[in-house]
Amino acid sequence: MASITGQLARNRDLHFVTNPSPNLFRRAKIRHFFVVTDLIGSGDRVWNFLESAWRVRTVRSWHSKGLIRFTVLAYASTEAGEARVRSHPCGPEVVKGRECPTIRTEFGFNTNIPNLCKKYYRGTKEPLGYKDTGALIIFRHGCPNNVPRILFEADKGWLPLFPGRIGSIGFDDLRPKFTGVQYGDILDSLGLSDLGRKQFFLKFPDSGKKMILVMCAIRKGMVKPESLCAGTKLPLHEIDDLLKIGIHQGLLTRTCRLTDLGVGTLGSVITKNLAENLPKVEKSYYYPKQLRLPSKSI
């Protein structure tokens, strides 16, 4: 990310600058302030970046006159972290690639998982990571400090998956098991475990499978893009595209509900296996399949 932003800044036609000082803020008359990050976990780090610009009196003056706006670009964000960032006085827009799952969002109020993290972590810091965020995301370039500490801190008899928060060590071991979208696992979590194993479903193109995932998640009551992202494990930009396609095809309403056509289409997909296994009924009676006008009698 540092390389990309640096290249943008070197392109003089784009008028980007990186890490501007207060004097550069005034001299360059910056009108759009971006914070670029991989993860919004607790929101503290992004808040501090925004605060560093907000302390400049000129910036606050420009903001009050509508001359400058703030945007945070993140690959992933937790629900709590995003709420904290949005609460900053500068009123930033948050653009993210996907919702970051946490222990709370994935396991609800089940205390077994937090208790397990506390049992095998014997340190004095937050067992669920910084600010007890409990984030469940790992990057190839590193392991965030917001994840449970048993994932990256070693102890007597305990070997973490990502020692020293080095993401590539454990990532390479796990990657073969998690390549692509795990349709079977996702459908299982949506209460449709049988569908993911059916041959007719496996023959669908990926776009069709993903549309079915989204429709199944909406059928389970997930309406917001963030909840659909968490329920289907698809990135937000794909969720947005699938919602637009579903609305265009008449499968979804603009409020992300299944239309009558959507209910019927999804129902036919879910019950297809049942229909294929129904016994065939012998035709006992003859009946005409089409009618024609009787011949004119003389």
Please give a structural write-up.
The chain is mostly helical. The protein has three domains: 2-98, no CATH class; 103-177, no CATH class; 183-276. It contains 15 helices and three strands. Strands 1-2-3 form a three-stranded parallel sheet. Helix 5 (79-86) links the parallel strand 2 and strand 3. Helix 11 (206-219) packs across helix 13. The protein is globular and about 65 Å long. Mean pLDDT is 81; it is low at 273-285.
What is the strand and helix layout of this fold?
Blueprint: H1 2-10, H2 22-28, E1 32-40, H3 44-54, H4 57-64, E2 69-77, H5 79-86, E3 93-99, H6 103-107, H7 112-120, H8 167-174, H9 183-189, H10 199-202, H11 206-219, H12 225-232, H13 236-248, H14 260-270, H15 272-277
Parallel strand pairs: 1-2, 2-3
Helix pairs in contact: 11-13
Strands of the widest sheet, in order across it, are 1-2-3
Q: What general outline do the C-alpha atoms trace?
A: globular
Estimated structural class: mainly alpha
Gyration radius (Cα, Å) is 27 Å
Listing every helix as H and every strand as E from the N terminus to the C terminus, the arrangement reads HHEHHEHEHHHHHHHHHH
Q: Please provide the count of β strands.
A: 3
Averaging pLDDT over every residue, what do you get?
81
- Tally the structural domains: 3
Point out poorly predicted stretches.
273-285
Total count of helical runs of at least 4 residues: 15
The percent range for helix content is 40-55%
Largest sheet: 3 strands, parallel
> How much of the residues is beta strand, in percent?
5-15%
Distance between the ends: 90 Å
